[in-house]
Specification:
With 253 residues, this protein is α/β, with parallel strands linked by helices. The protein contains 8 helices and 8 strands. Helix 4 packs parallel to helix 5.
Length: 253
Amino acid sequence: MIKIVPTVLANTEAEFGMKLRKLLKVADELQFDIMDGKFVPSMSIPIHQIPEVRRYRKRFEAHLMVQNPGAYIQPMARRGIKRILFHVEPLSDRTIRNLIDLCRKHKMEVVLAINPETPVSKLLPYVKLIDGVLFLGVHPGFNGAPYVAKTPARIKEFVRKNSNPALVVQVDGGMTPKTIAAVVAAGATRINSGSFVSNAPDPAKALRQLYAAVPVAKPAAKPKTRTAASPKRAPAKRIGKIVKTKLSKWTSK
């Protein structure tokens, strides 16, 4: 099943609140984009301005586009965030493993994210330890950044090399009705949408357009069932001849 999750990216607390209220009406899951101005050039609202979200009775995830994701995990858990996505690029292997353990300690799902230029191989050592992987379809930091056309090929490469079939493959960035079909066909099942849904005048309509563009899997053809062959019947003419012969023998006695 394909899941489309709108994202909330804002530079001010007022903008964040406005987008959150708008998107809560159309989606049962939302993603908060968090940027520190170091890992990416842009900055989002600081963590202390992220509200406590348990009251909304919906699922929230946080995409940490930051240099030091460890500083955000506990505060996000306290706010009711259930799923953390952080980037492998600025981190050592030991740090990645420690952060995965920290997320587990707070009962959070863990997703490792990579930018368009990062080799797919960077994800492979962790596939048995995490819940999903996130492919950036754009260079991160800005809403509306140009889509990177090689994204579906990168997903296909990962799916081919991945040893954990239960892993969720997620894509964020550049998703429109023209681009979503290719990433889904490549193996993605969870799609984040920023500009197309979150910035749309009518987010509900934009969300419907994205879902409508997802290729529908054709049901498998039903195998043809063979019925047991009926016993062969003797032709009516032959039956009549047999009966007549037997009858004449009986009357002649």
